[in-house]
Amino acid sequence: MDRIVVTGTGIITSLGAGKAVTLEKLKAGEKAIGPIRHLRTKHTDIPVGEAPYSDEELKSLIDCQSEQKITRTSLLGRVALQEALQEAHLDGSVRKRIAFINGNTVGGMEKSEIYYNDFLTNNDRNEYIALHDCGACTDLIAQQFDGKFDIITSISTACSSAANAIILGANLIREGRVDMAVVGGTECLSAFHLNGFNTLMILDREACRPFDANRHGLNLGEGAAYIVLEPEQCAQERGVQPLCQLSGYGNACDAFHQTATSPNGEGAFRAMMKALESSGLKPEDIDYINAHGTGTGHNYECEGSAMMRAFRDHVPPASSPKSYTGHTTSAAGGVESVISILALQHNFIPANLGYKTPIEQHNFRPVDHVIENVKLNHILTNSFGFGGNDSSCIFSAISQGQGQGQCQCQCFIQAASHISIQQPLSEGWFEQPIMPEQPYNESIDPDYKEYFAPMAARRMGKLLKRATVTAVDALQKGNMENVDAIITGTGLGCIDNTEKFLRAMIDNGEEFLQPTYFMQSTHNTISSQVALHLKCHGYNCTYSHRGTSFDSSLMDAFVQMRMGLIHSALVGGQDEMTPAYFDMLGKLGYWRQGDIRPDALKQADRKGSLSGSCSFNMLISDQQQAHTLCRMDAMEMLYEPTAEQLATTVNRMLSQAGLTQDDLSAVVLGLSGDCDNDAVYHLFMQHCCPEKNIVWFKHIFGESFSASSFGVYVGATVLNRNVIPAHLLYNRETPVDAPRHILVYNHFQNKDHTLILLSQC
């Protein structure tokens, strides 16, 4: 496998827009933390690292139409992405398979918090409802660069989001799934996050002082940054000069607490050691650590301990760029990777601004002034997020050597568990499904007393309990105690807790807020809670990309398993629906009015479907067992493909598995009764799978952002049971026996498309 190099970077923070101004201010030791100018909040006394541009000024930087409805998060992303693509010479003439992977948590919250009462009481701001989630943010950024990307997805692991985007992009390239990957993250300031961090009492009222004994907390910041990754040979063929190489990376979970970090920095230590191992480097090879360093007390107890564990008595020079920009949260991994690359290119180490007093327990001191004319070969960049989601990347100067190899392992679905609008933790839906009688449907919960102590259960939101229980149940069914990875897809996260915090913030004038609701509102709290319950320190990631959130999590697990990086994983789809959000989405035509019986849904003569809630966990591994449900042979994700591209992809997947169209027993489709949604599936039937048995599932599980997980679940169960029951057949009235190979196809609004090939073992 060829080495992966960086050929383009782009950045915007409170320091300004672009690498040139960023480099200038870094070398000058100029911090950009000060009063709030653009964010609407009563807490104007809290210093932040705010990008020095209004929304209209950001639009002018990228030639965006002034009247376009767009969020600030997406505007920041467009500015940084434009610079990265220009430096990498990625224009319309480049014919490569390119992935765009965006780290984000806020999404469109800064608009939602302003217009939330409008969402509930009138129709004046309905267009912003659809811009709330993280996937919409990513799609808005991609629209500016129409036609360039073949796969897009969104990662939401709080402060490690952009770093995890780098890891996924590198793995997609290494596995040969794409030729190039544009990776990073974007985040704007919002009153929601400002108040959330304020309730945790970790915001400093002065400029933050990373690694200082007298530190008092962090400063929130905003910004965006992306890097372009590609194999070295690809860069040579395109005539593009690499800036550096991505030589190693690692992710691990602290599995200690929802927000606090462990005193010994277990997750941080594991992430750094994984990065070193994957790079083939030794600790003494690292010339500089671009530390996560937020300014909180717990961060230095954790990160400092982890650094001393990894490097012992020889901790390299270290500093935290957050003393310049504030903590850009989900964008931090991208922002600080670009800063590391600038340091490599220009032979300097940024200062740890504000540092004065050493921490007694540390055997190292951060760099307290800018060091220039220093030769740097390898830089370790740390990004640690809520829930102990810890990631490290190593950027190195271009050198001679070999890239990492790869293998092709198999992937088997061992077991699955669900809590939904069907009977929980069972396969009763296969013989006698519960037929929904109304558009709004709530999950049927099991007795949680069997799984949690009363005190613990009271503190946990429903979705967290559901995710944990289905994870435990899937492991029990699969006869496994733990896994190498926990990967979750969620379009909205714990939306119930998000609404509770947002409503309280608005109703109480940003006062008297409960930190629990904020802590449980972050998307990756689901994966973190499962890891905490299982004490799983392995790879941990969360995808939040609308209707293909679960698909993205499964893609990550499938790619890593094929490469031999993991041997087992829990892959989840987790989404809930609240009455308020149901009403909001209803304004956009999401829900069906009138008859919702299966025969009426099949007509697909109007907009809307019936809703559902989804808590699903699937256990996969690289070894077949006696209880294995099926084998997963292939998976592809495509962004805005043509019908011809879809047909070509299906035939390629079958051919690579040694199959033809005649071998395909059935196709599982996300038919929901919505005229626009189902029209795409009917076109797919005509072009890609005429005369096939069509299986559907949303008439019994409902629609949600993670509903595609039930498509895979149904396909796997059908293969395991060796029959397709009549109530799951869309175009037949009698059961079909002995299915051997099943194709699962999902799309969201005809933008993001997924194809999965399953086979009987």
Entry summary:
With 761 residues, this protein is α/β, with parallel strands linked by helices.
Task: Give a written overview of the molecule.
This protein is of the alpha/beta class. 35% of the residues lie in helices and 19% in strands. The protein is built from 25 helices and 25 strands. Strands 1, 2, 3, 4, 5, 6, 7, 8, 9, 12 and 13 form an eleven-stranded mixed β-sheet that branches. Strands 16-15-17-18-14-19-25-24-20-21 form a ten-stranded mixed β-sheet, with helices on both faces. It has a two-stranded antiparallel ribbon with strand order 10-11. The protein is globular, with a radius of gyration of 25 Å. It starts with a strand and ends with a strand. The model has no long low-confidence stretch (mean pLDDT 95).
What's the arrangement of secondary structure elements?
Layout: E1 4-13, E2 16-17, H1 19-28, H2 55-61, H3 72-87, E3 98-103, H4 109-121, H5 134-143, E4 151-155, H6 161-174, E5 180-187, H7 191-199, E6 223-231, H8 232-238, E7 244-253, H9 266-279, E8 288-290, H10 297-311, E9 318-319, H11 322-325, H12 332-346, E10 348-349, E11 371-372, E12 378-385, E13 389-396, E14 411-419, H13 428-431, H14 454-459, H15 462-477, E15 485-489, H16 495-507, H17 515-519, H18 525-534, E16 539-543, H19 549-562, E17 568-575, H20 579-587, H21 598-603, E18 614-621, E19 630-639, H22 643-656, E20 666-669, H23 675-688, E21 693-695, H24 698-701, H25 708-721, E22 723-724, E23 736-737, E24 741-748, E25 752-759
Helix pairs in contact: 2-3, 3-5, 6-12, 9-10, 15-18, 22-23
